[in-house]
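Internal tracking record. Fields below are filled automatically when a chain is submitted to the structure queue. Please do not edit lines marked as system-generated. If the sequence contains nonstandard residues, flag them in the REMARKS field before resubmitting.
Queue: standard
Priority: normal
Entity type: single polypeptide chain
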Amino acid sequence: MILNVLSGKGGTGKSTVAASLVQLLAEKGSVVAADCDVDTPNLGILFGLDDDDFEKNTVSTGTKAFLIEEKCTKCAKCMGICVFSATSWENGPVFDRYACEGCGACGLMCPEGAIELRKVENGWVGKAKKGNIGIATGQLKMGEAGSGDIVALVKAKADRIKAELSAENIVLDSAAGIGCPVIASVLGSDYAVAVTEPTPSAFSDLKRVLKVVEYFKVPYGIVVNKSTLNPGFAQEIQKFAKEKNVKVLAELPYDVKFVEAAVEMKPVIEHAPEFRPLFEKILGSVLESRQS
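SYSTEM-GENERATED OUTPUT FOLLOWS
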């Protein structure tokens, strides 16, 4: 099973939920956790790992425009074509490497073939191991493009770790929002756990990310985190789920022990075992839905 934990909005507790589900699966055998939030990967922290614990490899999935000066006749036909405002003129065309998205439009306009796209190092992908848990992760370099491509490489790394460990399950900790990294992580998932909180912004973003999940025909359930912060709004989410005939897998309370677990770099079910039944309920519902 490839289980995707996503949220739509940042800060809802998505990684907290993912880490405890991984921990439960690890008690039954090997499992792979894949951090698909390649802009700000932090899943490893919840298992007590730091940056030096990961074996990393740099990757080049993005391209940038480069000028071949000896071919350039300074005709300026490449000016004004870039929708990202990555071109400027300083006695010839200059390309801003941070603004350039590697679309190639400027090169198409050049009659002399003086502009070419070259692969650039735009991130890294890595792995680590903690007991029965294999962790795949990656990070996009600041200012670079290609987050979806990095996520695809992280998922490929997770598949290789799964084979190495003879694991049965992969848990993906997705990025927030509905952009490229989320789309790349949802693709190919068997089930999605959508984590939200009882606030208007989180509820709105939940609806948006569920459209992505539904587009890829991935079955899903909802977890309402911090439900005791606003019980009335939590009921609104329950009503929404009932209308859509979607199961609310669990409601998690707002409790300082969740924060303490993150500070101690542990899954919350390790720090506060009293919450274990709630996560067992989530995982049980997921596994049940897979068998039906």
